[in-house]
Amino acid sequence: MAMAGTRYLLATITCLTWIPLTSPYCTWAGANPYWVGAPHVEQVTLTSVRVSWHGLLKREDCADSLIIKHYRGTNTGDYFMSEPQKVETNSYLVQDLQPSQAYTYQVIAREEKGLLGVDYNRSPKTIFTTNKKNVPIDRNDPLPTTVNTQQDDSQVTDNPREATGVAPIYGYEPKTKVVGLQLELFMGIVIGSLVVSIIVVGIIYNCVRKKEGEKDLELDSSIGFEEDEDEEDDEDGEDEYEDDAQEVVKYDMMISDNKNIDDSPPPFPHVFPTKK
Q: Three-state DSSP class for 206?
């Protein structure tokens, strides 16, 4: 019995070692990620901005991932969420924006608490509008220094802040899009269209060549048939010529026979002796 119990214990321990460990979360009171300001938003192009949050997230060791949320104007029902970013990141590029349209931006720190679910710790909101008056930045420019300590739920930023020596750290970025489609999908459609076009052109070319070949065969057969008819006509003409020649020869022979008969002296009359 003791040996059986020992084996059962060893098997249980072995199985437990194969169970994946969940990431720990901060269990003590007040140990939750929190924000000390709204994210910084800077214009890269008229249709893209850089969202950064360097120094704004506190107790990041309690967070498991970050999500960047944005929506047009104040319509919170029609929003877009990024893929989960690593906590070590401090910047994110938002693309496909409409110029001269106000957007609201927010960064969310996710804290996974195992069986208790997921805790979403939201930052204050930033409203930003891209336009030609704004000074654009490069995506790799240093991050701004100003740390917003306001407790308001949102702030409006229109001008770039002073830069620091902190470089942006990007995580997952949205793929490049062309005409609203991802670059890989767009290239696949283009290549597929080219392949289909080549196949269609090849089929049409083969059909045209086939029809031309049939026409050539018909033309050759018609030419051969005409040649055969010409040969037959020639043979018939030769036969008729030969027949005519024979007729002429016979006619000449008949004429010569008649001439011979006419040229011969007439026969002497037969004189019978008279009786005395």
A: helix
Per DSSP bridges, beta strands 57-58 and 34-35 are antiparallel
- Helices marked H in the chain: 2-18, 183-263
Look up residue 37 and give its DSSP letter.
S
Dihedrals phi, psi of 179, to nearest 5 degrees: 55, 40
Spatial CA neighbour of 91 closest among 164, 197, 1: 164
Task: Read off the pLDDT band of 20 (50, 70, 90).
Answer: very low
Closest C-alpha among 102, 92, 105 to residue 130: 102
Segment among 61-75, 78-92, 136-150 with least mean pLDDT? 136-150
Neighbouring C-beta atoms of residue 224, cutoff 10 Å: 10
* Strands of 3-139, DSSP E: 34-35, 40-45, 48-52, 57-58, 65-72, 79-81, 91-94, 102-112, 118-122, 125-129
- φ/ψ of 203, rounded to 5, equals -65, -45
Residues 6+ apart with CB under 8 A from 94: 48, 49, 50, 51, 68, 70, 82, 103, 105
Beta bridge partners of residue 124, listed in sequence order: none
